[in-house]
Amino acid sequence: MGPRTGLDGRTPFWTAAVRVFDLSLGEMLWSRRTILLLLLVGAPVVLAIAIRLLQAFGLPGMQVQGVRVAGPDLFGVIIWVLFIRFVVPVLGVFYGTALIADEVDDRTITYLFTRPIPRGAVLVGKYLAYLACTALITLPAVAVVYFVIVPPGGSIAATFPKLVVDLGLIAAGLAVYGSLFAFIGAWLNRPLIVGLVFAFGWEPIVMAVPGYLRHLTIAYYLQALVPQAMPQDSTVSLLQSLFRDLPTPATSLVSLAVIGVGFLILAARVVSSREYVLEP
User: Fold this and answer.
1) Is 198 exposed, middle or buried (0-12, 13-18, 19+ CB in 10 A)?
2) Which residue of 107, 220, 234, 237 has the fewest C-beta atoms within 10 A of its own C-beta?
3) Pick from 141, 133, 129, 135: which is nearest to 47 by CA?
4) pLDDT for residue 64 is more than 50
């Protein structure tokens, strides 16, 4: 029996999206971008191992203003500074903006759009492949950092539930940033620069300035969900004091869901209606 199609001869949306997902996931895992992904998630792992080795040789651990930073607190700093504020946006920019732009650059988008499948399903399938690819590599790296940094015993028993929350938070960040940059990639001809400006220009500046504009960032809602308690009496806690005006966790979850789903729908609609002109 052949593949199921609709009355108009076209493959149903989600059936087509799953097929595109199957095809795209393998391509993403073996692409050159995966090297970038491995380097990005490998850097915090190497840092965690270096810190643990220094401690094993009897050298003092990381200190802030003379106070030793405990393993769970140090892990919280790594999660926020390295993963959520750097790794996750970078992956969203480089993968999300390329979902359609790569097909245009490789001149394969015409082939995809001549198949009897909804155009929007191509974008959604490739987006799901991006999410699976990045999560399969990033989340295990986070778990490795946790078990290297946090000493065995009571600390792990007390903080392991927070690790689970962190993994979900990073997955949410990958989903929301990827959705936004998928829309930018489908809408603009040169989306990479716009994506980098948003992630590493607009967001850091707006987050450091009190006011309503921080509501127009993804980092504002992600930060409210970070469960780790940062070291007290430190420069880190001083930095945290700049961001006391945060939404509630419920508001953050709803906002992230609306942003992620909304931009994914917009991206699919742009792909469905836009005429992509291949440059000679």
Assistant:
1) buried
2) 107
3) 141
4) no
- Output the pTM of the full model: 0.87
Within a domain: 279: no
What is the spatial distance between Cα 177 and Cα 58, in angstroms, rounded to a whole number? 41
In terms of residues, how long is the chain?
Answer: 280
Specify the amino acid at residue 112.
L
Q: What pLDDT score does 73 carry?
A: 74
The neighbour count for residue 139, using CB atoms within 10 Å, is 17
Q: Which of 126, 73, 125, 79 is nearest to 98 (CA)?
A: 126
CB-based contacts of 80, cutoff 8 Å, min separation 6: 223, 226, 228
Which residue from 45, 41, 57 is spatially nearest to 148, judged by alpha carbons?
Answer: 45
Contact 70, 236 (CB under 8 A): no
**Average predicted confidence (pLDDT) for the chain:** 82
Range of the domain at 133: 13-273
Total domains in the chain come to 1
Range with lowest mean pLDDT among 56-70, 130-144, 148-162: 56-70
Chain position carrying tokens 């992904």 = 37
In a domain, 128, yes or no: yes
In a domain, 96, yes or no: yes
Does the pLDDT value for residue 4 go beyond 60? no
